[in-house]
Amino acid sequence: WDRSNLANDRLKKLILPTRQGKELRLPIAVALTALCGTAAFTMNAVHTTAQPERHIQLMDLVDSDASAAECVAEDEHLYEEMIRVIFQSVQCIRLVTESIPDDEFFSSFSYGDGNSVKDQKPLPFVLERVATFFADTILLAPSGLDSETDENPLWGNYSRGTRSLGSNVDSILHRAYKGLYGFTLSNSNDGLPTVAGWAGQEIKPENITTAAQLYRCVMRCRKAPPKAALLTIMAAMPRVGETTQSKALEKFLYSSSSRFSHTDVRMLVKQPSNCEAKFSEISRFLEMSNSSSTRNSSNEEAEILRRGIAEVYIEASMPPLDDTPEKDSRTQCAQMEKDLWSRFEIILHNLTHYTCADCEGWFRLAQLCLFKANVIADRLGLSKGFSRSNDFMPPGRATTTRQPRKELSKLVDNQEKEFHLRSIGRTESLGSNLKLYMQHSWASFESLKLLHEKIGEDLKSVLDEEDDTSELQIWNEIATLYADGKFSVWEQAWGGIFVCSLRTMATKCMCLTLYLLQKGLGLSDADRRNALIVETCEGLGTGAYSEQLGSQWYGYPMQIMPHIVKRDVAQTALVCYSHAVKVNSNKEDAKADNESWDLFFMMGKCHEKIAGTYGDEAFSYPDSMRVYETSMRSALESYSKSLLQAQACEKDGSLLVEQQGGSSHGAMEAVYRLHATRLKCLIDAVQHGDDEREQAESEALRLTEPFSFSGNTDKASEHGSVRDRVWGVAVDVANAMVHCRTKHSFFHRSIYRHSQCLMWAPVLSDPGHLWQEGSSGEVPALKALKMRGLNSESAVESAAGVIRAIFDKKRAQLCAVWVTSGAESPFQGINCHVRKFDSLRGKYISAFITCLQLCKKRDELENFLRWANSSRRDLPSHFGDTAGSNPPTGHTSDTLLVKARSLSSNFFLTSVKRETNAALASVILHESKATKVLESHLKLSYSCLLRLNADLSSLQKRRARRSRGVKQVVDALIAIYSAFSDSAPAAETFDWSTDGQVCLQLEAAVKRCRELFPSVSASFLSKRPTQRKKKDADSNQCEKIVGKKRKEVDGTFAVVKQFNVEVPEGLSSGETFITEIKEGNSVKRIRLTVPDGATRPTTLKFNLRVQGSPEPSNDADSP
Questions:
Q1: Intra-chain end-to-end CA distance of the chain, in Å
Q2: How far is CA 910 from the centre of its chain?
C-alpha cells in the first residue's frame, strides 16, 4: 500500500497503488478481496496443531460455492475468534472497495475461446461470493445462539451480537448486487430499501444456491422486497413440469365454459353443500393438500424459494398507478398489467403445485383480477355517459314522462323480454382459455394485437365460419374494426371482453376461497378463518356491486345494463354482505356488534338498487304494499342501523375520521345516505300521475317519517294534511344536508342533494299548481322560511346559489370533488374508481349547468366553457385518443356529435362541453326573443354551431341533428337567423318532421354566417374572461376619462388622448395592422385589429396616455 499520495494522511484511508496505472487497481482489489475471504480458514495459526487444517484456495472460492458448514466449530471460543477474524476481513474489504470508483467497480472483461466468450465483472462477482460466505457463516449461529428465523428456512436475521457486523456485510452485498444484476438496494428515509436504476438485466443468478443467498439478503432488508430483486431470483428458478393437480386447478380457473353465475354465488354463501358439483374435479386435491402428511413435505431449496416468494407477493399491496391522464399513462398502465401478470403467475404456480388449499393465496389472485378489471373499466367510459343528473329538477309539466306503470308480474315479464332481446349476439368472452386476458396487456397495442391474433387462430381451428351465432362471427366483427383503422372502437370492444373475463376468474377464486373456508380446509385457526370468511364475503359483495357502477353491462357489445341484471347483481351483493354481518355477530367480543356498520351501509345501497328496478310497479289496490316500498324500507332500516353502529364506533374511538373529502366521513356518510334516500322517495312520489299521486305520497310518508333527522318520530299521520307532512319531510332533509356540510366542509355530495331539494321545493309544496312552472316557481313565504337555503325568489335561484359553492374557482377537475385514497370499507372501495369519480363530478356539473341555463347566466356559462376547454382530457378520452399507438392530441377539435354505440360520444369532457354549449345556445335564443334580434346574437349562435366540430353534411342527418346537445344549437341558429333576416320575432317552435325544409334553413343560415363572420371560430365568446383588478395605488388612481391629466412620478403630466386611424385598404375582418405614435423623440408602435361586422370600417378610434401632443402616423404596415 502506498500512503504517499494521500491528500489528507490523518484520514488513514487506504488507496490502491497508482504508480503502475489504473489498470492494476481492479485486479489488485479482486485479489485482496479474495484473500480476505480466506481469512476465516487460518484459525489453525492461533490454535493447537491438533485441529485439522481447513484451507480454501482462491480458485475454489471463485469457481464453487462456499459452504458455511465448513466453518462450524465445536468450541465456542473458536466461534468468537472466527467472528473477530470475519469482522477484520469485512473492514479490510470495505476499505478496499470504497476506494474504487463506480466506473471501475462495474467494469467487465471477456474471456473464453472463440466458440464461447463470456463477459464477467470480476470485483462484484468475487465480492458477492465472499460476502455471502460471511453472511451464511454468521446466520448459521454455531455458537449456540438462536437466530431469528421464521417458518421459511431460507430466511433469517442476524443473531444478537452480530447485527452490526451483518449490517456491514449487507452493505457490501448491496453494491455487489448492483454490479451483477443492475438494481440497487438503498436505504430510504424511513429505513426501508428501495430499488433504483434497474432496467431488467438479462444476467441472472447461476444456480439455486446463489439465488437463495440473494433472497436472504433482500429479505434481511425488509419484509416486502423490491420487485426487481424478486424477478432476478425467479429468473434462476428451473422450469417445473405440469402435474395432474396443476392441470386440474388451471382448468378450473382458466376454462371459459365453467362459470359461477350470481345464482351459484348466492347458493354457495347460503347453502355450500349444494355447490359440491362445481368443485368436484379439484376437491380431492384440496383435501390432499390440507392433510398434514403432505403439507410442506418437500425441503428442496428451489421449492422453498418459490413458496417464499409467493408468500411475499400474497402479502404485497397492489402496484401503484397514476390515474391522471399524462403522455405516458398508457405506458404506465401496460407496465402495471405486466407486473400483475408476474405476481399472478408466481402465486398461481405455488397454489397449483404445492399449497392448493391456501385460502389467502386464492383470495389474492381474485384481488389481482379485479384490480386489473377495474383499471381497464376506468379507461373505457360509459354507454350512459358521465354528464347526467337524473331527477335533479322537475320536468316542468303536470304529467310524468315515464311509461305507464305496470303490475308486478307484467313488469317482470317485460324486463325479462328486454334482457333476452339485448342478449342476442352478446358474449362475455372469446376463446376457451381465460389465461390470455391476464397474460396480455390491454393498454399495449402490440400485446392486444397479439391476443387478437391468438384468439382468432384458436376460434378458427374449432368453430365453423358458416355458423352465424358462433364466437368466430363476433371475432370477425371486431377484426373488421381493426381492418378499417377504427383502433379506438377496436380497443374498447376488447376492453369490455377483458373486464368480463377477468371478473369471471376473480369470482372463481373468491368462490374457491369461500369453499375452502366453509369446509375447514387451509386454515386451522378459527378466529382467522372467520375473519377471512367475512373478508371474502365482502370481496364477493363489493365485486358484484361494482358490476353495476354506471349501469354499464360489459362484454361485447357494451351497453346499458338491463333492470333484471342490475337486480340480480344487487341481490348477490346483498346476500354476501348479509352473511358477513351474520359471521360478525357470532363473535363473543362486545365490540363486534359495531364492526358491521359499513356492511349495513352497503346492504342499504343494495336494497335501494333493488327498489329502483321496481320503480315502475303500479298500485294494485289501496291497502297493498309494493315491492318497491318493501325494498326501500329495508334500505332505510339498514342505513339507520349503520348510523347507530358508526356513532358508537366514533364514540369509543374505533372509527376515526381523518380524511376530508371523498367518502371517508364516518357516521356522517350514513346520515347523508339515509336522508338522501328519503328525498328520493319524495321525488318519486310526486312524479306519479294525478290518479296515483295520493297513494304514492302516502307510501312515501310511511317510508320517510319514521327516520326524521330532527328526532321527531311522532306519528304525523294523525295531524295535518298530506301537503304539510310532505313539506315537513323536505324541510327535515334540507336540514340534514346543511348539517353534513357544516360538520365536514368538503362534503360535496350534500351540496348536490341540498340544491336538488330546493329545485323540487315548488312541486313538493303544491304539485297540482306548480308543476308547469317547475323549479322557476316560488314557494309561499311562510313555507320558504322553514327550508334552509330557500329564498323568497324562485327556487332555481336559491339552488344555484347553493351548488355554486363547488364551482367557486377554476379547478383541474372543474368542480370541488375529491376521491377517497385507500379503501378501508366496501363503500370506500367502490368510490376509489375513476369512473365513479367522473360520474360524481359529471352529475354535479350537469346540475350546475341546468341552474345557469334556467337563471339565464350567459356570462357564467361562457366562463365555465373556458374552464372546460382549458382542462385536460379524462382517462377514457386519453386512451381513445392514443389508441393504435397514436400520439396524444388536444380535445378542442373533438366532435361533439352523438354517434350510435360509441363510447367516445359520452366521454366526460365531451359530454360536459356539449351540454354547456347547448345551454349557452338556449340562453342566447331566449335573449334574442326578449329583445330585438341583433347581429351579435347570430354571431354567438353561429359560434355554438362551430363548437360541435361537425361538417354541414353530418348535421343534415336527422338522427345527428336531433341528438341531445345538438338540437338546441341548431334550433337556436335557425330561429335567430330567421328573425334576423326577416326582421321579425323568432318562431316559438319548428316543425322538425319536414327534414328537407329544416336542412335548407340550416344551410342558408350557415352560408349567411360565413359571409358575415368569416373569422369567427369555435372559441369565440361574447366577453373576455374577467380578471381581478390590482389593488395597488396606481390602479386605484388610473383615470379612464379622455383628456384627464395625471402627474407622473418625474413631475411631468400625461394625458389620455383619442386617436383616429385610417384602416388600410384590402384588409378584412379579423386581420391586423400596425400604426406608429410619435411622442417626442420616441415612437410607439400599436397593433390594431379590424373588428368583425357586416361592413368593413374605414377608420378606427383608440385611446392612449401620452405626453405632449403627438400625431398618429399615416403609414400603416401591411397585414
A1: 79
A2: 19
